[in-house]
Each structure stands twice: as structure tokens, then as C-alpha cells.
Write a structure and sequence with these properties.
The complex is a heterodimer of chains A (443) and B (358). Chain A has 443 residues and is mainly alpha-helical. Chain A is built from 13 helices and six strands. Chain A has a domain at 198-402. In chain A, strand 1 and strand 2 form a beta hairpin. Classes of the chains: A mainly alpha (443), B mainly alpha (358). Chain A: GO terms for molecular function: electron transfer activity; heme binding; metal ion binding; oxidoreductase activity, acting on diphenols and related substances as donors, oxygen as acceptor.
Chain lengths: 443, 358
């Protein structure tokens, strides 16, 4: 049973981590494509139209990768987490089914029209199809985060005698206090990813002396949207999200921040340190006194509960993983703001395209929004442990009771092999498309 | 309310079979029948802008099944653990192949993805037939030894097949000669269906050849359907009661029969779309006949100890189902609108669309 739980968790963690590399780009990119296409309608400058079509090509490959790696997640609820599905399917199935019905059909139908239908539709309708693709992909994010939020902070339910969760208030799923801060935080983070990818490709073109016209456009767009989105990710949305954690999952918050002991007269914020789980303390820490209390409660001296105040059997199962995931996310977020802020300054001084250091830095940074977003997702998921449905259903009680651990190990290895192959092929193809550059439409 | 959702799930599955079914069929034709690059390209064009949306039906029906019948979802998905995950791998492989193939122009790259697309399509058609076979035959729900249930109802299979390959064995496998027979019917009917779609959507040089292949395959299909129905009667005679108790469900076999009959006239249709209509009727009729015959069971139990999974004992609660019905109807109308828009924009032959070079 123990290794069964381990393989089930590894399989879900692995497949969702790989999956989420794709939708975070498609969600952000769909917004930038709408911006490019809109600028084309406004200025009639063909460059913008070519840019929109170029990115939509990359979007479409990403989208297919996202869809095919998403189907296994939906299936795994039934295959690996049968008990969880049986007990909660009547509730979280609502939002998951809505995702399929409302967002995927919208997204996939109009993606086909955007890719193949420009000449048949005319420019205004073509813009509209791009906008509907954007709407579909953002709706999809909303419905997934709504599902996720219900697991973090269950609302609108009652529990029957047989242990089944049943819905008694549908609208509560969408007025869940956990939902909107996390959703906006998450969507902005996906715009950060797309900005770094678009800006990074632009920087690559400029350094490589190819497609310079597009290089400048991509870099400029990436820097502007990248700065705005990375600022908004940190404040106010990151702040809202953290305040939710303090309010609804104080034990998670203590582990994220690395607070073992409650301190009188205000908590320090930990910049660096390594949690020592055995001795319940933080090694080698660098911290600034009282800041955490201020950030959390706007009160320098208010106390924040440490882990030791809570029953050990409800401690997050992987405290150091949670601590590191959170600190990596916050640390990278700070670096993104600094880099994009500096790039913006150079853009305003009209020196951006020639500052090689920034061009290199932006290219080098492309993988890091992916890492930050993954770390953010891990913070949320590890933070919820040992619960599947917070305070109500333990993870260990949600797995399929009768699937053998040999089968889960086999399918875990199968997914690892298949996804490594897919990732490799994806990089080859995307690399080739980027190298070839946007197709310039002849007038 | 359960019945409403049951009908929704059945209709959505039938739509998925009809839509993604022609993609599978196109893959099989692409693998075995198309010889020249021009013909292959015509086939890929015929499904180019559609297959993405077709696959979405699977996600949508999965979601609906999950929320409307959570117990069925949990039991059947964990019970059919290995075969389902393998189907997932095939679906992934096929979709990726289609998407990546046109991105790099290299003979080896293209021929690898052609094979992947074709073989995955063939296996998927086979597996979907086998899946239907399992539902008709029933499964050992909960695994019974010496008259006592030893496993929860989530457990059906340990080995994928048993050595005797028999649908009567005590420990059933996914694969036996009965389910394989239905698998072969799946392959043949989807091949015909896909060929009809290609005829409908292209001006390919293949079209004449495909019409005569459909005509020949149709004889094989009729023979296999007759064999399977007569064997089915022996394997599981209970279903036929439904046809006596509720005579109106004869409409479903009638639809199937109309579809089959129409397919024999494939050479003389005035319009290329007619063949596709008839093969869709056949698929729709075949599927609905099957599920109507076992109703209210969804997954019959082969042992006497554990009751079958029925529409009534697997559904979610009434409030959830009725609130779901409201948003579902809105979304379904939207989906129909999108589908009409796509097919209007891309009406007629697809030969001039540059597939994979968008």
C-alpha cells in the first residue's frame, strides 16, 4: 500500500508537471497573439500580422501537446485515484466537465479557423477567432483552478453517510475565496512565461543577426508585457494568495516560510536557509526581522504560528520540498522583475537592442519562468498534503484500492519514457520553426 | 435525471465514435491503401482542421462521465487500468505524429510519423471494438472466489487474457475470441467510415478505388455482424429481453440496418457525402443497439455475488445532476454552433488546404 501511494503520487506529479509546461505558454501566448493581431488591425503594418501567425503556429503545437498530455490527467482520476473520484466526482467533475464543454471546444474549433481560415474569413473575423482562442484558453485555466481551489478550500458541499461528497451550492464553486486570487496570479504567471519566450526569441534574432525586424518587435513586446506581468504576479496577486494561505491553511504557511517556532513580537522573513526537519530548525539562515508579520498582517509585531504549534500528523508530508519550492518561486519572481525592469529602462533610453548583456540574459532566462511556475504549483500541491481535500480526505485514502503497485510502476515508467521522447521531438520541431522565423506575407 | 445524463453520455460517445472514428479510419486507409505522396496528402488534408476538435469530444465525455456517474467512472477506469493507459499512449502518439509530421521535411521523419499515425489508428479502432465487447460480455465485477467477493468492485482483471482465450472462462481477460471479433468489426467499420469521409472531403485519385473497397468490405462487415449477433445471443441471452419488453428500441437495430444497406449503394451515390451519412448511421445504430440492449446495466457483472453497475447505482446526487443540466445545455448549444461554423467555413473539398504548413 505504501509504495502504491508513492507510485500514484509520482505518476500524477510527473504527468502534471510535464503537462503544465504547455498550457502556461499557450495561455500567455494567446494574449500576446491577440495583441499582435490587434496592432495589425490598428496600424495595418504587416509585421504584426506575420508575428501573430508565427506565434499561432508555435501555439498550435503547444496546444496539441497540452491536450494530449492533459487527457491522461483526467483519466488518472479514474485509473489511479478511483476512491477520490468516487467520493468527490459529483463535485469536482462539474468543473472538469465544464472545462471540456466550454473551453476546449471553443479553443480547438477556433484554433483551426485561425490557422487555416484567414483568407476565407477576412481580417476582422480572423482577429475574432484569435480572440476566441484566447478566451477558451483562459476559461480552461479558470475551470482547472476552480477544481484545484475546491480541493484547497472545499465549499458548497455536504458529506453523506457513505462518505460521498455531494454538491449543495453550485455558485459557491465560483465564489470560492481561494479561487480568484490564485486564478489571476496563475494567469499573470503564464503571461510572464510567454513574455520571456517571445522576448527571448527576439533577443536571439537580434544577436544572431537574422529576422532583425521581428527581433526588435518580439523583444520590445516581451519586455513590456514581461515587466507588467511580473510586477503584478508579485503584487498584489502574490500577496493575496499568500494571505489566503495564512487564513485558511496556517500550517502550510508556516512550512512555506520555514517557521518552526512561533516568535513573540513579530516574525522575520527568511531570505535563505535550509530546513533541518530532524531538529526542527532552519540552518544557515539569513533573515530580516518583523517583515513577514508586516507583509501578512500590515502589523510589525503580530505573531505568526510556527509549525511546532500544530499536531505533527497534520504537518505537510514534505516540509523541505514545500519550503524550497516556495522560495524558488519567490526568488525567481524577484529576479524577473529586476531583469525586465532593467531592460525596460534600456528600451526607454533606446539602447535595448544593442545591450548584449540584456539580450543574453533574456535568452538565458527562458527556462526560468517555467521553473518558477512549476515551483508555484508545487507550493500549492505540497502545501495541501497530507490532504487531497483539505482537512476532509487524506491522500492515502484516495487511491485506487485494487490496482496493483506493479501496474502503477509500469505505467509510471511508460509515461516517463513516452514524455521524454515527446519533449525531445517538441524541442527539435520548435527549434526549427524558430530558426526559420516568421513567414513574410507578400503584398 | 439519471436517464437524461445517461442519454447525454451515450450520444456524446456516439458522436465521438463518428467524429474521431473517421480520423482512425483515415489513418487505416493512409496506412494500407494510399500509395503515392499525393494520395496520402489528400487524406491528411481531409482531416486537417477537424481532428483536434474531434479529439476534444473524448475529454468532454470523460468529464461528463466523471461528474454524472462518478462510481462508474472510478470502477471502470481503475478496473480496466492497463488497457486504458495503453489507449492513452496510443492517442498521444497518434496526435503528436499528425502534428509533428508536417513540421520537418525529411523522408525518414515523415515516414516514421506516417507509420505511427496509421498503426496507432488501427490499434485504437481495434481496442474500441474490444472495449465494446467487454461491455457486452460483462466483467467479473469484484472478483469472486468460492462464492465470496474477495475484491472491491473496482477490480476486474489481472491478466489481459487467459490462456483459453474464452469468453466463458472463470477469470476473464480483456481479450478473448468474442471481444476480438468485435474489435475486428470496429476496424472494418471505421475503415469504411474513414474512406467515406475521404471520398466526401477530397477529389483524390483514390476515391474510385475507395468506393469499390467499401463495397467489398461491406460484405465482410455484414457477415461479421451476423456472426457476432448470433454468438452474442449465446454468450449473454438476457439483453434480448429488452427488445421484447420495450419494442420501441427496435429503432436502433433498424438504424444500423439502414446504414449497412445504404453502404452497398456507395458506387451509385450522386453526392460524395451520402456514404459518410450511411456509415455514421451504422456506427450510431450499432452503438445505441448495444447499450440499449443491456440497459439499465452499464457494466454487467458476470458473477452472481456482485450486482451489475446500472444507471441508478452509479449516478451522482440529484442536485448536482440538475444544476449540471443547466450549464450543459448552454454549452452543448455553443458546441453545435462552433461545429456548424467550422464545417461551413471549410465546406467542400479540402485539397487546396496546405496541411502542416500553416
Amino acid at each position: 500500500m505504501e509504495d502504491m501511494l508513492f507510485y500514484d503520487r509520482m505518476q500524477f506529479a510527473f504527468t502534471i508537471t510535464f503537462h503544465y509546461l504547455f498550457p502556461q505558454l499557450t495561455m500567455g501566448l494567446s494574449l500576446l497573439i491577440v495583441v499582435f493581431k490587434g496592432q495589425y488591425l490598428y496600424t495595418k503594418d504587416n509585421r504584426y500580422n506575420d508575428a501573430a501567425k508565427f506565434w499561432m503556429k508555435i501555439f498550435s503545437i503547444n496546444f496539441v501537446m497540452g491536450v494530449v498530455t492533459g487527457i491522461p490527467l483526467e483519466f488518472q482520476f479514474g485509473t489511479n485515484w478511483a476512491k477520490f473520484s468516487e467520493l468527490t466526482g459529483g463535485i469536482i467533475g462539474q468543473t472538469l466537465a465544464m472545462e471540456g464543454m466550454f473551453s476546449f471546444f471553443l479553443e480547438s474549433s477556433f484554433l483551426g479557423l485561425f490557422l487555416f481560415g484567414e483568407k476565407l474569413l477576412g481580417q476582422k473575423l480572423h482577429f475574432l477567432t484569435g480572440f476566441l482562442v484566447f478566451l477558451g484558453s483562459w476559461a480552461s485555466g479558470l475551470l482547472i483552478i476552480a477544481t484545484h481551489s475546491w480541493m484547497q478550500y472545499p465549499v458548497g458541499y455536504e458529506i453523506l453517510e457513505n462518505g460521498k461528497f455531494v454538491l449543495n451550492n453550485f455558485s459557491a464553486l465560483f465564489s470560492n475565496p481561494w479561487l480568484w486570487p490564485s486564478y489571476i496570479h496563475n494567469q499573470l504567471a503564464s503571461v510572464v512565461t510567454a513574455s520571456f519566450v517571445v522576448g527571448g526569441v527576439g533577443a536571439f534574432y537580434l544577436l544572431n543577426n537574422q529576422h532583425s525586424k521581428f527581433g526588435k518587435l518580439f523583444l520590445k513586446t516581451g519586455v513590456i508585457t514581461g515587466l507588467i506581468s511580473s510586477l503584478l504576479v508579485a503584487f498584489p496577486t502574490g500577496d493575496w494568495t499568500a494571505k489566503n494561505v495564512v487564513k485558511y491553511q496556517p500550517i502550510t504557511f508556516a512550512a512555506m516560510e520555514g517557521i518552526f517556532e512561533t516568535e513573540d513580537g513579530g516574525s522575520e522573513i527568511i531570505i535563505i536557509g535550509q530546513p533541518d526537519i530532524q531538529n526542527k530548525k532552519l540552518d544557515n539562515k539569513i533573515a530580516i526581522p518583523n517583515i513577514l508579520s508586516f507583509l501578512t498582517y500590515q502589523n510589525w509585531n503580530r505573531e505568526i504560528k510556527g509549525l511546532n504549534e500544530f499536531d505533527e500528523k497534520n504537518h505537510p508530508t514534505n516540509i523541505s520540498g514545500l519550503y524550497y519550492a516556495y522560495h524558488i518561486m519567490v526568488g525567481l519572481g524577484t529576479i524577473f522583475i529586476a531583469l525586465m525592469g532593467f531592460a525596460m529602462l534600456q528600451l526607454l533610453r533606446k539602447k535595448l537592442y544593442k545591450t548584449k548583456l540584456i539580450l543574453w540574459a533574456i535568452i538565458f532566462m527562458i527556462p526560468f519562468p517555467y521553473i518558477a511556475n512549476t515551483a508555484g504549483w508545487y507550493t500549492a500541491e505540497l502545501g495541501r498534503q497530507p490532504w487531497l481535500v483539505y482537512n476532509l480526505l487524506r491522500t492515502a485514502d484516495g487511491i485506487s484500492p485494487t490496482v496493483s503497485s506493479g501496474n502503477t510502476l509500469f505505467t509510471l515508467l511508460g509515461f516517463i519514457g513516452l514524455y521524454l521522447l515527446l519533449g525531445l521531438l517538441f524541442l527539435i520541431v520548435i527549434g526549427k520553426i524558430i530558426y526559420k522565423g516568421p513567414h513574410i506575407e507578400k503584398q | 435525471m439519471e436517464i437524461f445524463w445517461y442519454i447525454i453520455v451515450v450520444v456524446m460517445l456516439a458522436v465521438y465514435m463518428i467524429l474521431d472514428g473517421y480520423d482512425f479510419g483515415a489513418g487505416i486507409v493512409h496506412l494500407f491503401i494510399a500509395k503515392t505522396e499525393k494520395e496520402k496528402k489528400a487524406i491528411r488534408n481531409a482531416i486537417g482542421p477537424f481532428w483536434d476538435a474531434n479529439e476534444v469530444w473524448l475529454i468532454a465525455v470523460g468529464g461528463v462521465l466523471f461528474f454524472a456517474f462518478p462510481t462508474l467512472y472510478a470502477a471502470s477506469f481503475s478496473g480496466f487500468y492497463l488497457p486504458l493507459i495503453m489507449i492513452l499512449w496510443l492517442l498521444i502518439f497518434r496526435a503528436i505524429g499528425l502534428e509533428l509530421r508536417g513540421q520537418i521535411h525529411n523522408l525518414i521523419w515523415e515516414s516514421i510519423w506516417d507509420k505511427a499515425f496509421g498503426i496507432a489508428s488501427l490499434l485504437l479502432a481495434l481496442f474500441f471494438g474490444i472495449a465494446l465487447g467487454n461491455i457486452v460480455r460483462g466483467v467479473n465485477l469484484g472478483m469472486v472466489e468460492n462464492g465470496v467477493s474477495t475484491q472491491e468492485a473496482h477490480f476486474f482483471f489481472l491478466p489481459l487474457w487467459n490462456p483459453s482465450f474464452s469468453p466463458y472462462a472463470e477469470h476473464l481477460g480483456i481479450i478473448d475470441w468474442f471481444t476480438v471479433l468485435l474489435g475486428i468489426i470496429g476496424v472494418i467499420s471505421l475503415t469504411i467510415h474513414g474512406a467515406n469521409w475521404i471520398i466526401f472531403k477530397t477529389d483524390s485519385t483514390l476515391n474510385k478505388l475507395l468506393k469499390s473497397i467499401i463495397f467489398k468490405l461491406n460484405f465482410v462487415l455484414v457477415a461479421l455482424v451476423i456472426i457476432s449477433v448470433s454468438i452474442w445471443h449465446i454468450i449473454n441471452p438476457k439483453p434480448f429481453h429488452n427488445f421484447i419488453d420495450h419494442p420501441w428500441i427496435w429503432i436502433f437495430p433498424f438504424i444500423t440496418f439502414t446504414g449497412l444497406l445504404g453502404l452497398f449503394k456507395v458506387k451509385s451515390f450522386r453526392k460524395d457525402g451520402y456514404g459518410f451519412i450511411f456509415s455514421s448511421l451504422f456506427l450510431f445504430g450499432g452503438f445505441t443497439t448495444t447499450v440499449a440492449s443491456i440497459f439499465p446495466n452499464i457494466l454487467p457483472s458476470t458473477n452472481a455475488v456482485n450486482p451489475s453497475l446500472t444507471v441508478y447505482n452509479v449516478a451522482a446526487d440529484q442536485y448536482g445532476l440538475s444544476v449540471g443540466a443547466k450549464w450543459f445545455i448552454i454549452s452543448a448549444v455553443l458546441v453545435v454552433v462552433y461545429t456548424i461554423i467550422i464545417h461551413k467555413v471549410f465546406k467542400g473539398k479540402m485539397d487546396n488546404i496546405k496541411y502542416g504548413e500553416h
